[in-house]
Amino acid sequence: MTAQAKGTRVREGKYSNYFEVGHNPFEFYVDFGQYDPRSEKVQMHTRIVTSPAYAKMMGATLTSSVDSFEREHGPIPADSEELDAMELVRESLKRTET
Predict the structure, then answer these.
(1) Sign of the C-alpha dihedral, residues 96, 90, 34, 61?
(2) Can you tell me the distance from the alpha carbon of 4 to that of 11, in angstroms, rounded to the nearest whole number?
(3) Phi then psi for 51, rounded to 5 degrees?
(4) Rg of the chain in Å (alpha carbons)
(5) Is residue 26 a contact partner of residue 46, using CB atoms and an 8 Å limit?
(6) How distant is the alpha carbon of residue 1 from its chain centre?
(7) Is residue 14 a contact partner of residue 32, using CB atoms and an 8 Å limit?
(8) pTM (predicted TM-score)
(9) CA 62, CA 54: separation in Å to the nearest integer?
């Protein structure tokens, strides 16, 4: 029996530090990409399209996962008036370059 037949197929992973969310009356879509601080541009690479019911479940699952992460690692700063998301990305990239 092959690995794919056993359901253990290796999935391709893509790093994303940028996303956009949209919807229409029938579906939600989430576009993922990478922000490059040198060029100040975003290269989009993946779009996930799903039904409103699954989008709601995905939101609840993500919320639960973030709650679990914060219990283990401490709070994630999220005050949008005090936090510039793109500046947070720039700072995290600077830490990985050193």
Answers:
(1) positive
(2) 11
(3) -75, 160
(4) 17
(5) no
(6) 34
(7) yes
(8) 0.67
(9) 12
Q: Report yes or no: 31 and 16 within 8 Å, Cβ to Cβ.
A: no
Cα–Cα distance measured from residue 23 to residue 54, given in angstroms and rounded to the nearest whole number: 13
Digit-coded pLDDT (tens) for 48-79: 999 999 999 999 999 999 999 999 999 987 66
Please report, for the chain, the start and end positions of each structural domain, with discontinuous segments joined by +: 18-92
**Cα(85)–Cα(92) distance, integer angstroms:** 11
Taking only the tens place, the pLDDT of each residue in 43-54 is: 999 999 999 999
In sequence order, the 6+-apart residues with CB closer than 8 A to the CB of 42 are: 18, 33, 34, 35, 36
> Which tokens hold the place of 37?
């601080």
Instruction: Give the β-pairing of 18-23 and 41-50.
Output: unpaired
How far apart CA 19 and CA 11 sit, in angstroms, is 20
Please choose, from the candidates 94, 89, 19, the residue with its C-alpha nearest in 3D space to the C-alpha of residue 58: 19
